[in-house]
Each structure stands twice: as structure tokens, then as C-alpha cells.
Amino acid sequence: MSATAPRAFRQLGSDRVDPILVGLWISLIVVAVIWLVPVIFIVMTSLKSTPEVMSTAVFSPPAELFLDNYPLAWERGRYTTTFANSVIITLIKVPVGLIFSAMAAYALSRIDLPLKKMMFALILFGTMIPFQVMLAPLFSLVNKLGLLNTYLGAWLPYIAFGVPYQVFILHGFFKEVPQELSEAAIMDGASHFTILWRIFLPISLPVLAALFILDFVSTWNEFAMALVLLLDGKNWTLPLSLMAFQGEFGSDYGPLNAAIVTTVLPAVIVYLIFQRYFVGGLTAGAVKG
């Protein structure tokens, strides 16, 4: 039986079945099913009319594809406006946040600064504070600055809460870059900015791509902070537009699930585009000198 077992279940260099690998594969399959079940439910519900949703079993396929949910969701959720708001906020915040994080990580890992360890510890402390506990003082601060219902009022807090984690990851990667590379560049007259731009950023593209995906998805799907800072409906992002499908006495489940699919789809597309860089970024961490 072991001779016919799939290669993924065999011990390295042997035909024997490895029970640990079998257990890992079973765990992966279970986790995949747990994640896929809600996705299948949402997609199938988005293709049903509201009466069919209420009268059929939860996971029954639609008797007839009801595609009207998607244009209805686009119109009711004002997706022309909310989609544009999400694009503007996300595509400005994510690159700017990565640039600031890369510069901070480089300075903390390669430049001899006073109190460098204390500054790095303070940045790491930012990763330990749940942003939910900061919503009230954050609202008060943004309001005093006159930035409520503005893109800038959303960009600044988003960047502030995203930078600590990115600095932590990039700092660890930059520390593994051979010191000889930067020393040789300095001897040739290169500035720290040139070293960062010409040496560190090119070799850290897999890590930057992984951070880009994580930051893009988290910013695109962020709800609580946007709800507090973007009070005017004309400035809402896609997650906030889902509230338009909630009524006092019920919900339009077909259009609601169509809106969820439309909201999540751009993040899925971005992940598929950068998938190979994402996998490389997760395994990066050592650079051979």
C-alpha cells in the first residue's frame, strides 16, 4: 500500500508513508474546506433571487441564474462612487506606507543612530495596540485637525497603523543583507538614499510584494476605521457600502451577497497577480554573501 501512496505522503528518500505528512495534508484539507464553504455559499446566494433564497436550502444551487443581483448591487451600493473612493485610498496609502516603512527599516538596521534600539522598540509597541481601542481618540484628533470626511484624514491613520508591522518585517530582512554591500557602496560615494534605492529595494522585491498584498487586502477591506472617519456617504468605501443592503426588518440577501462578491473580487485579483512574489516573500529572510 505504501508503494502506491502519493509522493506527498512519503518520507524523503523512501516509499514509506509518513504519518506526520498525512496528518498535515488532512489538516490542510479541513482548513481549506472551512474557508471554501462560506465562499461557495456567498457565490451561490448572489446568483439567486430573494424569494428563492428564502425558500430553498442554504447550499442548494440556484434553479436559474439570477444575474440581476449584480447591477442592482452596483446601483444600490453606489459602487461608482465607493469603488473610486476605495481605489484612491488604497492605491495611495499602500505604496506611501511601504516607502516610509522601507526608509525607517533601513535607517534602523544600517545607520548608527542614537537611541536606535529604543526607537525600534517604540515602533514594535505600535503592533501591540489594537486599533479598536484608538478609535475614539483618533476620531477626536482627526476632527480637531479638520480632516474628517477627507482622503487625507483616512490616509494618515491607515499609514500610521500599517507602518509598525512593515518596519518589523523589513528590518529583519535588511539585517540579513551582507554588510559588505553597503560598505562598498559608501566607499564609492553612494548616499544612504542611493544604497536603499539601488541595492536594498531591488533585492527585497519579494518581501515588498508580500507586504503590498497584505496591506492592500487589509486596507481594501477595512471597515471600522473608515466608518468612524468617513461619515459622509459620498466618501464611503466599498465595505461601508454594504450597510445599504441592511434594512430595519430584513436584508436583500441576493444583492447583499452580490455586493460582497464585487467587493472582495479586486483583492482576489491582486493576490493572484502577485501570488508568486507573495510565496517568495514569505520564504525570504536570508541573503547569501
Give the topology, please.
Elements (H helix, E strand, L loop, with lengths): L18 H28 L3 H6 L13 H8 L2 H32 L5 H11 L8 H10 L6 H25 L3 H9 L4 H12 L1 H16 L3 H6 L8 H4 L11 H21 L1 H9 L6
Helix pairs in contact: 1-13, 3-13, 4-7, 4-10, 5-7, 7-10, 10-13, 10-14
Quick tags:
289 residues, mainly alpha, MetI-like fold, 68% helix, globular
Q: In words, what does this structure look like?
A:
This protein has 289 residues and is mainly alpha-helical. It has helices at residues 19-46, 50-55, 69-76, 79-110, 116-126, 135-144, 151-175, 179-187, 192-203, 205-220, 224-229, 238-241, 253-273, 275-283. It has two domains: 2-46; 69-283, MetI-like (MetI-like fold). It contains 14 helices and no strands. The longest helix has 32 residues, at 79-110. Mean pLDDT is 84; it is low at 285-289.
Assembly category: single chain
What is the CATH class name of the largest domain? Mainly Alpha
The average pLDDT is 84
Largest sheet: none
Approximately how much helix is present in the residues?
55-70%
CATH topology-level fold name of the largest domain: MetI-like fold
CATH architecture of the largest domain: Orthogonal Bundle
**Count of all domains:** 2
H/E topology pattern: HHHHHHHHHHHHHH
Distance between the termini: 46 Å
Low-confidence runs: 285-289
Q: How would you classify the helix and strand content by structural class? A: mainly alpha
The number of helical elements comes to 14
Number of strands: 0
